[in-house]
Amino acid sequence: MKIICLEGCSGAGKTTQYNCLNKYFSDTSYKHLAVIEKNYEPFKTAVEKWYNEKGPLIPFTEQDVKNFAKARAETFKNNFQPLEENLDLIIFDRYFYTSAVYQRSCGLSPEKILKINIEYGSPIPDITFFFDCNPEISFIRSEKRNKLTGKDHLFSINPQKIAEIKKVYINLISRRDEVIIINTEKSIEGITKELISKMEFIL
Length: 203
Prior knowledge:
By secondary structure, the protein is of the alpha/beta class. The chain is 51% helix and 13% strand. The protein has a single domain, classed as Rossmann fold (3-Layer(aba) Sandwich), CATH 3.40.50. The protein has helices spanning 14-26, 43-53, 62-80, 96-102, 110-120, 135-149, 159-173, 188-199; strands at 2-8, 32-35, 89-93, 127-132, 179-183. The chain has a five-stranded parallel β-sheet with strand order 2-3-1-4-5. The protein is globular and about 45 Å long.
């Protein structure tokens, strides 16, 4: 089973491509599973507990980082590892890179947070696509999405904040061999074709 991860700032196009890839592989002979990990236990409960008790305005602690890492590893072990022999690939919309970037307010470096997640047992993806997008475009997309869904910005509250988050992402992924940067300012169809072509060598 190959693990594919889609990462990037809010509004970069991750969920759109997650849906496109899910549709594409549903029409092929590949056995796949598309995953948003916050919908699976116990990671779901860990996210809800953090949001209800603390939220984005209160800095993370090192214990929060460990709680998320433990829940993520257990979620993979309980929900996805048993399917390993029956799946060709699993596609994640966000993974531990998100934690590494957004939990850095605890004082740990993103690299250290990533290391903690791996040490707890979360597997390293075979490929991670980082969606690179202009912060202004990302913010406009996020605003449009939020108006449709009724959701609010948690961290990406303006283009400047998105630019700051993007910088942290870039610094982190530049040291990761499994990460491929994808420019997502082009057509949706073009991006999907690029993703599929880059996945072919591991499938």
